[in-house]
Amino acid sequence: MEKETHKDKRWFWRGVVIFSFVAFVLAAVLFSFRKYFHPSDSSKAVTHQVVDKYANALSIAMQFFDVQKSGKLVNNKIAWRGDSAMGDGSEVNLDLTKGMYDAGDHVKFGFPMAFTATVLSWSILEYGNNMKLVNELENAQESLKWITDFLINAHPSDNVLYIQVGDPKLDHTCWERPEVMTGKRPLTQVNATYPGTDVAAETAAAMAAASLVFKSIDSVYSENLLKHAQQLFKFADTYRGLYSISIPEVQEFYNSTAFGDELLWAASWLYHATGDKSYLSYVATNGDTFANWGNPCWFSWENKLAGVQVLLSRVNLFGSKEDISTEESLSLQLYRQTAETFLCGLLPESPTATSQRTPDGLVWVNQWNPLQYSVASSFLAVVYSDYMLSSQTPNLYCIGELYEPTELRNFAVLQLDYILGNNPMEMSYLVGYGSRYPQQVHHRGASIPVDVNSNCSDGFKWLHTREPNPNVAVGALVGGPSLSDTYMDSRNNISQSETTTYNTALIVGLISGLITSSSLVESFVRN
Question: Is 105 a residue of the active site?
Fold first, then answer.
């Protein structure tokens, strides 16, 4: 009965695809006549003029990766940071000292860290040339490698992956600088007995994407990453289960509610990294089960479906070197259609525009870390806009209305400018950018003076003080404003004032995509 349901669903969406295609062609024909009377700005010559404010914002945002580094620091650029967590992994004879603390505490959570690496890789692959224009490409690559070095070491055998260093509950009983930590830092793993399909597949995606980044820089390292990615994908798909079910303790911090999105995400990246058509077949045959076609959702560390849909749309838009079956072609069209449904919802003038916005126009989904969603959505909008331009796709069809790629880009510009200070609070939510930004970021290392003798328990006085942080967490993107466009600058206001590395990866990608006045860039691989 279940197979019949999936079959019915597939034929339903095939009908939707055919209907949508016909509607799109008719609308495009009508639109082509309109353009004779209203010439499009997108026909102008492509330029590569750097937007200075975004170049400055990128150099600031990139520094937060250095703020978050664990281990023996090399060429340390942050004066108030030092070596930390030098014993991580020693109890199992592994070097897990690298990696990054995910937020203002000192736990290394593998799930969001891997997502950080995947998004940073994607950003480099699409916009590395833009990063290079402003001398930030090498910094991005080095930050990425700091994470992937950790991920490689965290995968000592085919079916074992260490996914956490430190005990969050124990860690949260202290408020201290990472350099002086003395508490126990236990390791947590997923394996064949206690599976974690979600975290293993996300790590596979990170390694596959990163293998493309390092392919022309260090082929041996790239091949090693790809080997780990393939092993982890097989492990994730063979031993299926949520890591938050296998390890209930993680539910309070990074709870996972599904793993299908990570499997599709990993397979998509493995297809791009290897060209192995079996991965494309995987996303086609498992789309009915996992893709939730026709129902767009927000892109975040916990849900990768919108990212999958945009990433697979590039195959649909650019074509493939390999022969694609009818089933694969139809599934790619469904992924693209769902991506476009998501993107139509972002455009404020679209008939399907989401109402999840602040009065001043910021996309706002959740009171906890709201900027994650606006930045992630804007990043996907810029990427898709560039895919449209590169593939000479003139319009996005939204229930009877047509929109040009520049309109997706304009949406992203408005979101980024809001974040950088064009908002009712007249403050930048990127720490270190502009003349006014949050002074009390929820971040231990930033809040405690370097020259004080403070231990685990008495450090809480620095959490509760109303004074500005003595150390600036440069590049931190805070959680962001409330639904009413307000912000309370207090360390104890965690939902608004805490920052994360995945926020930084997303805004690095967004800024990099907008750093030149041209939105037409060379895509990292033409299938």
Answer: yes
Integer angstrom CA distances of residue 170 from 407, 492, 495, 499:
48, 19, 21, 20
List, for residues 200-212, the tens digit of each pLDDT value: 999 999 999 999 9
Q: Which of 136, 340, 404, 498 is catalytic?
A: 498
What distance in Å separates the CA atoms of residue 418 and residue 374, rounded to the nearest whole number?
10
**Model-level pTM?**
0.91
Q: Which of 228, 272, 442, 443 is catalytic?
A: 442
Residue from 105, 202, 261, 404 carrying the catalytic annotation: 105
Instruction: Name, in order, each residue with C-beta under 8 angstroms of 224's C-beta and a sequence gap of 6 or more.
Output: 152
435-464 pLDDT, tens digit per residue, is 999 999 999 999 999 999 888 989 999 999
Catalytic residue among 95, 276, 401, 489: 489
442 catalytic? Reply is: yes
Nearest to 119 by CA among 227, 236, 202: 202
- Average pLDDT, integer, range 179-202: 96
What residue spans of 154-295 are helical by DSSP H?
168-171, 197-213, 219-238, 243-246, 251-254, 260-274, 277-285, 287-290
Place of tokens 């014993």: 87
Per-residue pLDDT reduced to its tens digit, 385-440 = 999 999 999 999 999 999 999 999 999 999 999 999 999 999 999 999 999 999 99
